[in-house]
Amino acid sequence: MAPCNTSFTILAVSFSLAFLTVIKSETMFARELSARDQFWLKPKKMTHLRFYLHDTVTGRHPTAVPVAQAATANASATLFGTVAVVDDPLTVSPDLNSALVGRAQAIYASSSQSELSLTMTMNLVFTEGAYNGSTLSVLGQTPLLKNPRELTIVGGTGVFRFARGYIQLRTYAFNKTTRNAIVKYDAYALHH
Fold first, then answer.
1. Which residues cross the membrane (predicted)?
2. What span, in angstroms and rounded, lies between the C-alpha atoms of 78 and 111?
3. What are the φ and ψ backbone dihedral angles of 155, each rounded to 5 degrees?
4. DSSP per-residue letters across the chain
5. Please, is 138 exposed, middle or buried when counting C-beta atoms within 10 Å of its C-beta (0-12, 13-18, 19+)?
6. pLDDT for the residue 120
7. What whole-number distance in Å separates Cα of residue 2 and Cα of residue 189?
8. In CA terms, which of 60, 131, 161, 173 is 20 to 30 Å from 48?
């Protein structure tokens, strides 16, 4: 009879462990996953994107519009306290009529009392080719008079899922009267 009791004991212990594992997995807050198995991720690769952002502050169809302003912003040379929303076109060349590759949809704030500098949170929404429907999420501080300057890529969607990296920005053209600008973007995104 000993072999029968042993088999029953092993079966009972196995069932108990399986039951406890099910209970534990249902109540767990977090668990480790194999990204390659769970999300079918390919090895990481680096993509370089070059495009031009057209920031139109004045004119018939502005793409950057102030939505909040500190009472002292008009008296400030840096427009400190001004917050704007943005929906700027992204093109393949500095010519606004060149091929549209996406849009920069953002919120930025003039956040320095001593220099022209913006704190930005932005989604680069791509509409062209293999990147159509993909986005890069960007965050950072950009001192406008510095060339080059950098923003951080903190994430992405679509082709750029799990992205990280950086963007170098250079002012290509700036009109002091209208305050409209064209900015060259060189984005380096590490993604799967």
1. none
2. 9
3. 175, -175
4. -HHHHHHHHHHHHHHHHHHHHHHHHHH-S-----HHHHH-PPPPEEEEEEEEEEE--SSSS-SEEEEE--TTGGG-TT-TT-EEEEEEEEESSSSTTSPEEEEEEEEEEE--SSS-EEEEEEEEEE-SGGGTT-EEEEEEEEETT-SSEEEEEEEEEGGGTT-EEEEEEEEEEE-TTT--EEEEEEEEEEE-
5. buried
6. 96
7. 65
8. 173
pTM, two decimal places: 0.78
92-147 pLDDT, tens per residue?
A: 999 999 999 999 999 999 999 899 899 999 999 999 999 999 999 999 999 988 99
Most distant pair of Cα atoms in the chain: their distance = 98
